[in-house]
Structure formats: structure tokens, C-alpha cells
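Reopening this ticket.

The earlier resolution said the output was attached, but the attachment link was broken on my side. Pasting everything inline this time so it's all in one place.
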Amino acid sequence: MAKETAPPEHPPQEYIPREPGQSFFDAINANKRNSLLLMAVVCMIVFVLCLALGHIWGIGYYGLFIGLFIGLVYAAFSYYMGSKVVLALSGAKPLKKSDHPYLFHLVEGLALAAQIPKPKVYIVEDRALNAFATGRDPEHSAIVVTRGLLEKLDRQELEGVVAHEMSHIANYDIRFMMLTIVMVGLVGFLSEIILRTFIWGGVRGGNRRGGDSGLIMVLGLILAILAPIVAMMVRFAISRQREYLADASAVRLTRYPDGLKNALIKIRDNYKPVKLATDSTAPMYFADPIGKKVAGMFATHPPIGDRIKRLSSF
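Inline output:
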């Protein structure tokens, strides 16, 4: 662990630079609106796929209700069990306070500042520098850090990363991202059913007299091909929006942007992929845990350079 030094005096909040004509809270609210709009796109895709499935099976609008029922059951299971599944897939183990008292002190202090219950703390035995938050709400949340993060970051840098993850919890990003994962998974599931129905000749046609059943089926087939790609792009876009929001919120908690900025620099310069990270869990991490050389619409995280640049303006 690097030698602990006292951080410089934190700048007053009113001196945090803003985008031209935009307040700090306006920027946060804009990110939230963008995320909700993107989520609405995924919900609309699910609606149309369910409608198309009903016409393909020859049961008309009953297919819509069946699809929505399946979606609700799937969402309920993911809502209550998703966090446990994520922790298990990531190889996370509970961390004792005696093993790393300063980390627990950070979590307790930042939870108090964020006005939320203290999350549980877990560790992943991996030399990569990373972390993530999970749960369905602040009352049922957890922060997970890697062994590499604890060993490489100094106190102020660790505070910045923990504040970032605490912001995900306080902003209900953990619930929002869990629901996003559920909806994107549902899009893929419904698309697979539609495509297999067409391939295996199970198309029966709709029961409506208006003659629009064929159009709906064609639209459903086209959407079944394109929807998984679009839904994944939307999910990644939501993830990028929430990362910027969490960075900004972390600065509000710590009042010390250099801690988070220096952590990002250190993670960039000492990058290692997280061994047990998957495509499904990747958007939850503090930094891209897989190391895919992708950018733009297919990136799960904003470029670290962009995040550093934004933090440099605070």
C-alpha cells in the first residue's frame, strides 16, 4: 500500500466547473433522462416482439399478454436473485473488517455522506484493478473490490473508486442496470423464439380480420434479427451514461476529484482483465474488465481518457 498522505483541502462545491450554461445538477438530470429514454426504446422493442409473436403463433393479442407475463416472471426472479448470481459468477467473497479496516471505514463514511445504509463489502482475488456495485436497492447492496485494487491504490484513490461505486448505489444505478440486463436478455429470448418459429415452419398467422397480421409478422421477423443488436447497443449506451453520472456524483461525495482521476490513470497504466468477468457482468464494473478493443456504440464504458479529461475540469 502506498504511503498515506492527507489530501489537499477540497474545493468548495460552488467552484466545481460546469458545462457552459449547465449546472452540476442539470448535467446529472440530463444523464438520467437519457438513460430513461434509452430504456424506453428497449421496452418498446419488447412490446413489439410480444405482439409479433402472438400473430406468428396465431393467437393475436394473447401473445402480447403471454410475453409480458413471461417477462414479469423473468424480471421478478432477476430482481430478487440477480445480485446473488452476479456475486457467485464473479467469485466474490465477503471481506472481514479486520482484514482491511480502512476500506470498511471508507465504506461507512461514504455511505453516511450519501445517506444510504452501509453496503456489504466483498473481495475478488484477482490482481486486476477493478470494482463494482450490485444489489436491488441501497438496503440490499454490495460493493466488490479486487485484490489488485486494494494493493495498488493509495487512500485517496481508493476513496474515489469506492465513492464512484457508492454513487451507483445511491443513484439506484444498481437496480436500473439489473433491469436493463433483464430487458436485454428478454429481447434476445423473444427474438430467438420468433426466429426458430420461422425456421421450423411454426407460423400460423394471426386471428385478426383487419389484414394487418402479415405486416406485423414481417415486422416481427425483421425486429427479431435486428433487436438483439440494437438492445445490446442501448444497454452499452446506458452503461456509459451511468458511468459519467457516477464519476460526477463521486466528486460530490469526496469533494476531491484528483483521487478518482488518479485512480483512473493508475488503472489505465496497470491494466489487466478480470479473469471471471463476462459480457453480461462487464457493464457493472468500474472500468472495462474484459479488455475488448472496441469503442463507440459497442463499448461498455466511456474511454478512460474521456473520464480523466472530464474530471480534470472539476
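Reporter confirms the inline version is readable. DSSP finds nine helices and four strands in the chain. The longest strand covers residues 131-137.
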